[in-house]
Amino acid sequence: MEKENETQKSKKKKAFTFLRSLKNWLCKLYHESPLFVLLLLVQVPLEIGLSLLGTYFPSALVADITEHKTLGLVFVDLVLLGGGLNLMHLTQKWAEQTQMVAGEKIRYLHSMELTEAVIGTEYAKTEKPKRQHVFEKLQEMHLWSDTFTKKLMDSLRFALTGVGGMILYIGILTQISLWIPFLCIGGTLLNFYVSMWCNRWEVNNRHRWWALDNKMQYLSLTLSSYESAKDIHLYHMPSWLGKLYHGVLAARLRCTVRQQANYFMMTLSWRLIWLVTEITASLYLIYCAGQGNLTAAQCVFYFGAINNFSMCCNLVVWQFKNLHETALNIEENEQYITDLQSNEDNDKSTDKSSSYYSDRNASQHSKIEELQLPENYVPEICFEDVTFQYEGSDEPVIRNMNLTIKPGENLAIVGLNGAGKTTFIKLLCGFYHPTSGRILIDGTDRRRYTSSSWLHYFTGVFQDTGFFSFTLRENLVPEGDVDEERLWECLRLADLDEKINKLPDGLDTVFGMGIIDGAVEFSGGEFQKLMLARALYKQAPLMILDEPTAALDPLMENELYERYRDFSVGKTTVFISHRLASTHFCDRILLMENGVIAEMGTHKELIEKGGKYTEMYQLQSKYYQLAEAGLEGEMVI
């Protein structure tokens, strides 16, 4: 009994959620474009009127013929009824096209809303593959032809037309028999339950083929990309990649077969029920006509009315199915945006017993503020017993770290892969929040400030760079307001001014060969200099250099680090590198191992200590010496 009550409550909750989602979305659409929604009030009466007039037209002509009316009167009926039909069609087309134009604006507004939610959310949330897949699919629904907003309005229009038509034709058909409308409605309800069952299965399983679609897209881009072409041909990858693609395609086709089986079941149900109701109702009309209860014109009219009533019933079923599916898409869209804008993920990974939560507010975070530092001011940053563990991981990546970064300090972070260096940088920048412990800015917990206001004071060069297929000017100064003199000074300091001047379009040259015609590509060293110029232009007090030269040879890396050092005066700079000789000039060096600071000190202090750092340094020094002797080809780093 309890299970039945729970089931009933669950069904009521789903129905309420369905109606609430549609209502909220319609209110949102009305706020964005009242005309877009109000045109629905024009289209529905037109659709019903066209259906009724289309039913009456042939019966009126049959009546004219059987009553032996003159050709002139028949012509008048043709002109009036035909003209009325055409005028209504034209008005309907105008409303449809006007709504389509308004819908284009709404489509891009919703796409932008989704994009802004992703851009504005915290970095840790955007890293998750599941969220990336959902974002791509929601964007696809917003941007391409069959958007769920368009689908909602079409379904709502046809559903209301169907309901209005059903009411109209019930009134007409009850004049000859009560059981004909009930027969059609019974078949409609059966269709409704079949379609809801099929629709629920598709919504519950579509994430499976969404993941397969993403894999297919990735493999397609990999097979045809400019960046991968050399490796694909050099290592004979086409057949291997082709097998991978066909394997994913086969899995996707299995999902497609199941989808089509769903559609076939719905179509088969609709056709069989339509056939039974149409044949039964038609036989009854023929019987009435044979008994002399209906004239030929009335028989034609009721044939049309039965057919249209049956179509209205099925229209309601199909459109309510579409409304149900659209409501689920709307729920997913709204939940996705809400999730991005909430602190739920951070709350899961943050220790609520930390002093920030227990002292500041027992139930909520303290009021978030904008961080504002004086011009040219460099703050002190303190890691206080910081531990960080990725969601789903068994072990922390950073363990009980205590570290104070002094204003204007050059700090180097070194260590093997997986030591926690990059995670440390993400914690420092505010991309992640500690699982436990605190990060303090001049003694104040960083979580008191917005992430965007903290990031405002950072500049940096990273191993995974963020240059896009835009002009060099747009990449270097994405804010838009360019100080040309300052930009060229930064390019000169980065030793790139001559290179840029030689380009046909200078700073208006598009970056990214193989994507846009006329675009250019830069060598590894030149690319790092571009990164340096961008970092210099921002003039932030905190600079991060996270293995930006990993693809360069040691001598080029050392040259660039010397250049970075020259520009780090008056800033707090954090260097990360596998190659220890490039960071010996730093004020302090931290050797990280398994998420903890294993050794700390200046280069000289660590060498004298004779620990792990000394061992790594001596091992790497041999190869630097070979390079200086002109034996670069024998280097193995």
Describe the protein's architecture and organization.
The structure is a single chain. This protein is an alpha/beta fold and 637 residues long. It folds into 3 domains: 13-338, ABC transporter transmembrane region fold, CATH 1.20.1560.10; 371-457 and 544-629, 3-Layer(aba) Sandwich (Rossmann fold); 467-539, 3-Layer(aba) Sandwich (Rossmann fold), CATH 3.40.50.300. It is 64% helix and 9% strand. It has 21 helices and 10 strands. The protein has helices spanning 2-32, 34-66, 71-120, 123-126, 129-143, 148-173, 179-224, 229-234, 238-290, 296-341, 344-349, 355-360, 421-429, 451-455, 472-476, 484-493, 497-502, 524-538, 554-567, 603-609, 612-628, and strands at 381-388, 398-405, 410-414, 436-441, 444-445, 458-462, 542-546, 572-576, 588-593, 596-601. A 6-stranded mixed sheet has the order 6-7-8-3-9-10, with helices on both faces. A hairpin with a 2-residue loop joins β4 and β5 (444-445). It is elongated, with a radius of gyration of 35 Å. Mean pLDDT is 79; it is low at 344-365 and 631-637.
Summarize the entry for a quick read.
With 637 residues, this protein is an alpha/beta fold. It has 21 helices and 10 strands. The protein has 3 domains: 13-338, ABC transporter transmembrane region fold; 371-457 and 544-629, Rossmann fold; 467-539, Rossmann fold (3-Layer(aba) Sandwich), CATH 3.40.50.300.
Report the β-strand fraction as a percent range: 5-15%
- Termini, distance in Å? 71 Å
The CATH class assignment of the largest domain is: Mainly Alpha
Number of alpha- plus pi-helical segments? 21
**Number of E-state strands:** 10
Question: Could you say which structural class the secondary elements and strand pairing correspond to?
Answer: alpha/beta
- Biggest sheet, open or closed, and with what strands and sense? 6 strands, mixed
Strand order of the largest sheet: 6-7-8-3-9-10
Radius of gyration: 35 Å
